[in-house]
Amino acid sequence: MNIFAFVLLSSSLLPFFFVLSDAGDSITKPESLREGITLVSKHESYALGFFSPGNSSNRYLGIWYNNIPVKTVVWVANRLNPINDSSGMLMVNSSGSLVLLSQNRTVAWSAKSTKQARNPIVQLLDSGNLVLREENEENYLWQSFDYPSDTWLPGMKLGWDLRTGLERRLTAWKSPDDPSPGELSWGIELHNYPEIVMNKGTEKFYRTGPWNGLGFSGAPDLRKENPVYTYNFVINSDEVYFMFNLITNSVISRALLNETSSLYERYIWVSEDKKWSLYLSYPKDKCDGYNLCGPHGNCIIGESPICQCVEGFKHKSSDTWNPEEWFKGCVRITQLSCEDKDKIGFPKFVGLKMPDTTYSWVNGSMNLNECRVKCVNNCSCTAYTNSNIKNGGSGCVMWFGDLSDIRQVAANGLDALQDVYIRMPASKQVNHKEEKDKQKMKVIVIVVVAIAVVFGVLLIPYCISKRANIREKLENNVMIDQDIEGQSEDMEVPFFTLATIVIATNNFSSDNKLGEGGFGLVYKGTLIDGKEIAVKRLSQKSRQGLREFKNEVILIAKLQHRNLVRLLGYCIEGDEKMLIYEYMPNGSLDSFIFDQTKAKVLGWSMRFNIICGIARGLLYLHEDSRLRIIHRDLKVSNILLDSKMNPKISDFGMARIFGGDQIEGNTNRVVGTYGYMAPEYAIDGLFSVKSDVFSFGILLLEIISGKKNRGSFHLDNTQNLVGHAWKLWEEGRPLELIDTGLKGSVIHSEILRCLHISFLCLQQHHNDRPNMSCVVMMLHGESSLPEPKELGFFVGKKSTSSSKNESSSTNEITVTMLEAR
To answer: Nearest CA to 267 among 123, 401, 152, 388?
Structure first.
């Protein structure tokens, strides 16, 4: 061996003689990191070392949380090239690049720096960022934050460096055992109006809609106002990126892509439970699926079908409109002429997710009127809006061609609303001056209301000091509730102070009392801005505890359907627990159908509309919402009526959430209301969507007859309403069941069909009952119905619980089974 070869070999082996023996936060050029040694950041937040994921024996270099007991990897270096033994070594080579070597000094991974460093140092920061820099200099030559894996950490930019062409994008692990890149990715798609897009392979899977200065039109949860973290979206000539930062260092939160569930998920670490709690996820529901309803289609959760058309358009395949046809979308009802601009208008649409921005044009200096003029003069312009709605709105966005991937998004506060103006015939034209004046008036009203609310709050100053602690307590309690685990993000509904509620209800005056249930009193209230509300004030002796209260807040805040009551907010102060709902001026359904005078107001046509509305609401709960929900306390007193007598299902305190394909469960704590329980639930504690179907069958009988199932005695005093109705059906006298108040409005064929459907819902065996999608079709169809089998009868004369208060929703009952003839 000549002297040159010896020197070369010695210099190449030199790093192996400076292997770290103690954990620190950095290594320098002569040092290296090998198996069994980890780098730990200065304040011990993160660690860097070698690990094997899941059940794999492969070794990877990664970064994980160092301050929690569950090993959670947030970054992987050699995702594409695992090491199959313990030979891995991290070092800085002679050219100043960070390299990972495997057996036989093969390069398994390398990080090329922007320039060669004279005295390089590799350091793990407390942000979880691994950086390469010149010693005694702050600028990074390379950083792991520029090359994320599946996890998004605070301070990490997602997006583009337009100067270098670098894209920072999340890619999911293929599986828990394999960190190599999967199909799912999440990053900013560069268009004239950039937005975050989730791809599966090369296909779009979900998009947030563009950033409008306050949030994303299609992802209302990703907004700046948040108790845990803040977002920052930056777009300029050098960079386009999205970043989040935690409000307090006491919270640990991360976001990641999950290949298995095909979701973007955000988690918060719950130290008391020593586990990660799901905070939010996207896509949330079917309507978040990319372009599900095709061009000009509007996806609306709660509608049946969920794919509707934007107003002014019609289904392209109207004769065969089914899920297989939705992608074809909608076409204009009236074709527009390009030449005659006087016949063109731009009506305003509110609450829509902004269309796909692929074919858009943006000018940040134009105002809305200038934007409209430019769109009118361009025949290809389909719609326009402000590019930034912050501070009253500015900039111009125009869309060309078909409008794709639109959905209806629930209003998330006045500031989050974004208007879009779509090209239509002039008959639908909007006067923009009037709209501008209305917006100004709206701002004035908001300011006045805000001042009035502050003045009202000052009347009871001692309540204010408790608000922060109460909010924190509520959020922490939500995270540890087994039934609603992982749903803590849904507590983000408005918080009302006790002072506000006291003023609104005139200190809970008896004149404002709307009703009383098993869990407390309900009051009518009027906020300072004149908005009417209903306040459900839980009794301190109520059997609905914090568990049921949180359940109701979470469920109703998430659910958006025309036939479900809308939750406006909540209040917890001291021993007070209150839910604030939209006010239903016509009260509950039982106040009509069980009152001989008021029952006459409800003709059959109105009752049938109420039946169909309840059915649609249940269908949404069981099949169309993101999670399957069993109400468990469906009864006429829990059906509220708005000003137009539209029904809304309320009281979700005892509802249960099912995920995925789960269809049934059981419990030792039988809850519900006497007279509406399905036999299998009352006897064995088994509940499912079919339990709600049984309760719906009872509702049908009560609406048709105007009589209560419990306490309705007939003939020999041994039967309840179900038994009496079945007896009349068997004897060919079903019309005798009809409420006498329906005279003059009866449609016999429709009533008999509803009665028949009721019996199908009341089958003794739950497998014989139809699901709600079948019920909805049967209500609107004319085809023949199957013959009902044995009915499930209970609450007969032999029940030992007849003395219990009907308003109670927790029961211990004796069941009497009567066999149908």
So the answer is: 152
Domain end: 582, 612, 630, which one?
582
Looking at the fold, whether 775 and 638 belong to one and the same domain comes out as yes
Question: 520 forms bridges with which residues in the sheet?
Answer: 517, 538
Between the alpha carbon of residue 271 and those of residues 90, 260, 274, the distances in Å are 33, 26, 5
Domain annotation covers residue 816: no
**For 375-422, what is the HEC assignment?**
HHCCCCEEEEECCECHHHCECEEEEECCCCCEEECCCCCHHHCCEEEE
pTM of structure: 0.54
Q: Are residues 604 and 644 in the same domain?
A: yes
Domain that holds residue 74: 3-180+214-283
- Residues 329-380 pLDDT 10s: 999 998 887 777 778 899 999 889 999 988 789 998 999 999 999 999 998 8
Please give the span between the terminal C-alpha atoms of the chain, in angstroms, as a whole number: 105
By DSSP bridging, strand 297-299 and strand 406-407 are parallel
Q: Are 59 and 157 part of one and the same domain?
A: yes
Together in a domain, 261 and 331: no
Kindly report the length of the chain. 821
Asked if pLDDT for residue 761 goes beyond 80, the answer is yes
Of 715, 680, 709, 723, give the one whose Cα is nearest residue 815: 680
Catalytic site positions: 633
572 and 498 part of one domain: yes
pLDDT for position 667:
53
The residue out of 261, 283, 305 marking a domain boundary is: 283
Place of tokens 């301070």: 155
